[in-house]
Amino acid sequence: MIRRTFLREIGLSAASLPFLSGLPSLQAAAADSARKQRMVIMISPNGTIPKSFWPDTEGRDFALKEILAPLESYRERMLVLRGMSNKVRGDGDSHMRGMSCLLTGKELFPGNIQGGSHTPAGWCSGISIDQELKNHFQSKEATRTRFGSLEFGVGVPDRADPWTRMVYSGPNKPVGAIDDPYQMFKKLYGQLEDKEHLGSVLDELQTDLKKLQKMVSPEDRQMLAEHAEFVFEMENELKAAESQTLHHAAPELEPGISDTNDNIPEISRMQIDLMVNAFSNDMARVSTLQYTNSVGQARMRWLGINEGHHGLSHELDDNEDAQKKLVKINTWFAEQLNYLVTKLADTPEPGADDSMLDHTTIVWTNELGKGNSHTLDNIPFVLLGNGFGFDMGRSLAYNKLSINRLWMAFAHGAGHHLDSFGNPELCEGGVLDLS
Amino acid sequence: MPCRLLFLLVISLASALSEDTRQRGQVIYGKLCVECHGPKGEGVADEYDEPLFGDRTIPDLAKLIHKTMPEDAADLCEDTDAEAVASYIYEAFYSEAARARNKPVRVELSRLTASQFQQSAADLVGSFRRTKELGSERGLNASYYEGRNTRRDKRKLERIDPEIHFNFKEASPVLKEIKAEAFAIEWEGSVIAPETGVYEFIVRTENGFRLSVNAYSDKPLIDGWVSSGKMREERVSVTLLGGRAYPVHLEYFKFKEKSASIELAWKPPHGVDSVIPKEVLAPVRMAPVMVVSTAFPADDSSMGYVRGIAVSKAWHEATTVASIEVANHVVANLGSLAGAKPDSEEWAGDIQKFAGRVVAQAFRRPLTERELEFYVRRHFGGEVTPEVAVKRVIILTLSSPHFLYPEILSGDGIDSDDVASRLALYLRDSLLSKRSQKKVLDDPKVIRELATHLLDHPLTRAKVRGFFRHWLHIEGELDLAKDPELFPDFDQETIVEMRRSLDMFIDEVVWSESSDFRQLLLADYLYLNGKLADFMGEGTFDGREFRKVYFDPKARAGVLTHPYLLARFAYHRSTSPIHRGVFVTRNVLGRSLKPPPEAVKFEESRFDPHLTMREKVTELTKSKACMNCHSMINPLGFSLERFDAVGRFRFEEQNRPIEIESIYETIDGERISINGARDVAEHAATNSEAQRGFIQHLFEHLVKQSCNAYGLDTLDSLHDSFVKSGFHIRKLIVDIVTTAACHQLDTLETQES
Lengths: 435, 753
Known about the structure:
Strand content of chain B: 5-15%
Radius of gyration of chain B: 31 Å
CATH superfamily of the largest domain in chain A: Alkaline Phosphatase, subunit A
Number of helices of chain A: 11
Oligomer: heterodimer
Order of helices and strands of chain A: HHEEHHEEEHHHHEHHEEEH
Shape of chain A: globular
Largest sheet of chain A: 7 strands, mixed
Helix content of chain B: 40-55%
CATH architecture of the largest domain in chain A: 3-Layer(aba) Sandwich
Distance between the termini of chain B: 34 Å
CATH topology of the largest domain in chain A: Alkaline Phosphatase, subunit A
Largest interface: A-B, 59 and 52 residues
Number of strands of chain B: 18
Largest sheet of chain B: 7 strands, antiparallel
């Protein structure tokens, strides 16, 4: 009852609860003396074409190959990491582990989802690095934001399985990407009215849920307890939203772009616009951008390619036509990355005298190293920006280095000093030193 | 009595004997096998890490052990020892029954799935609207008018038009007394959505029109009343829930334009632009349906069927937003839904009563005094308007666990309301159904009657159709496109028509008098229209209407040879006996297949181009490791080789006659010769594993819980009555939902007696 009264007292007019009213939010000039840090993970599927991707040389003096060429102007703010391996073994085929263990560094649970080979598997048994960092940021007043993290998708199919999910808020807790920009817009800027009604019923809903928890078996109680927790979170979000005002105007989305294969280029651009806007309004410090899914079959007709991406990626290296098309596809992804990086570089960091790119580390990676071998070695990793203070402008090569160690470097970069991340056995050697 | 005793004695003697064998097997297993396979057959890392389970029989297992085990000393365990080990592991962990025993499942608390939420919300709001019977007549009601207005006194003709697809050119429609210069037509009725999704409605005309679909208000969905005589096409997207009928209203007029024509088309989910066909139009105008348009996160389908087994933040947000959406809808239509007048003195009181009825309806039972106070009364009064109060009541109600978790019971046990609600949920994915007579549902017989009564409904039909899509692996967005050089006629429209043909076939089998499961596999006909018949090379006839076309029964057999499925399980340029074989093995024959020990790609280019597909696959899978499963998969796949990648019949490949004969080893270890699809179909139709697989799939789809959760003998008894009923699918559905609805019914008597 107290909470409800509180909501009443802070005023229930449409303007006061932006979460549902159409007003976006910002921790208004929240005096944050610490340097702001953000992380973005972008993923594209089906592996890369190594000869057109990896620079020939190591060190500071390296030239970008065809696929990375669109990012030429950011070469000095880039790290290319060769020789990174997803060493998670156990259940699931390479695609499933490639997708669902990439950001978690931990095994899949046994399950009965069957891949193209190997044993069947279920969801991942660990949390993904983006969610780990989100929790870290959300645990402190100074770095807490309204959403903590935002999961963007482009062409992600509407089905939940290990091939379509890479973000995990915990074991068995996949988080789906929102691949409809309009839905994301609604989430960010809320077009819903009636927040006051919501505020008034959430407290009662809690009461209801608590009462019912006593009526079900202990095994079933967990789900109701989680449900109650989400209600509680929503109340807090409403409250948080109340104290926020808008820094950057909400972007205007071109209306009527339907969520279809052929609109992928439009949707990609809209999602990146929304992401950068949400960052500039400090709605989140962590974000993921997922293009299609593992085994993704986008048909990039806008590049003159009619075959599905995954089908093409199975073609052998001596199929020149397929190689050419795959290079084109991967270059297109690099162009998307370039759009994001440029947008961040061109946007001044609110409350600082540099750009948002100076506060953001972006990583572009892939579920596989190479599509036709399904290898989880030599997975593409390109880092951009200066969020975590890595020494940029280098091309580095490792020998089957576990990606768990890279994720530890991200955590440490964010001031989250983990002793291990994911499966501890895969962290041998400790934090990867990128300074 | 003595008779029964003797019987028991025999049973226990027999089981004691085999118990002995098993114990001996256990001892041997402990000595020779456990090192590599683990104490419960779970496998040992670095030794043999695959768990031991499968569908071999005991004699088959014994043979295998005798020949091959232990791996480095196969003569250590032979003959009766091998039999003992086989019978021990079979009972302890190998067989499916053993696995079910070892890992007991229970009926888990589950929330409404996204579809169940949408359907339940639609029924909740719909229960306050006047309902009509849709009737069996198809087509739309048409009224033809003289002059450019739809004035009653100028109406010259009423009739039913099967489709709206007219080109009057410069002439008058239908009657001479209607002048060509100016006339108007009005079409009215309902459109039935076969599945849930976004439908694009399309009107093409050079004249004026207004279209509304599922409208709550007078505002048309497309207003194309003003026209300059040029042909144009207008489109609008509407989300519709499957298995429901929605009001349609199309007004049309011509006034001095040179010509007149009109077409009402749509693009259904997974479909292509086409004139809305007669079978989904009805002349009765139904009440509008509240369609929740909030996007829900995809439900868990990790067990192979969609179920509401977990909650997430995204889900909580979606249900909250959806509740607000429903509340807004109700408030916007408050007067008509509540049957009250806003300016009357009783308004506030009427709305409060209405709010109480909504909550009771949503919770499927009368409310207690305390509940009435908590959910309804205290929201009313004071400065709050009745509109705001009812809005809050609805948001609270639809986000309440009493609505979201159907298995949470109202009191100490289940009562008649719970049983009725379960039946509706299993059959229609909706919590609510109208019960004409409020009988006490405490007896499986009465419950079965109600289930039978609820069965024949468009919502059940839609759900059953959804099941078949799942069972046949044709859910969601499928890309069946083939290489246009090899199959130039296999265009998008052909694919869509093939899918319609498959839907019609399944509907025909399921909803016919005999509803015979075996007919799914054995039928010797297909539904074809002119275009498909031409494509398939099966005679020529004109027309868009489908008709039954009979085949030589030797050539084709039921769904197994339906071109849509054959094309679905095929490569871009060629057939795929492996995909077809795996589909038949798993889904049709209900056998379990282990995943391939290593991923092997089928690369057509690696083979001598003169080889047949059968030769290529045989070559590719010849290793011992592959043949463990492919000895089962390949023969089944080869038996369908007389159908090319788009499902057309063929005799030759590479200028050689196609060999389809092969030997298939059944689950009982019997080697049978199969010669084509018909043999496979006949085997499947009479094979009890295949039937049990079908029952299990259907159970999970309807109830969204595992069949074993209702007792380990549930599957057996469902199978028994399936056999007794002559494999009657609809009776099986009634059986399944009755079984699940009776769960924990024993608590009922104390409740209601």
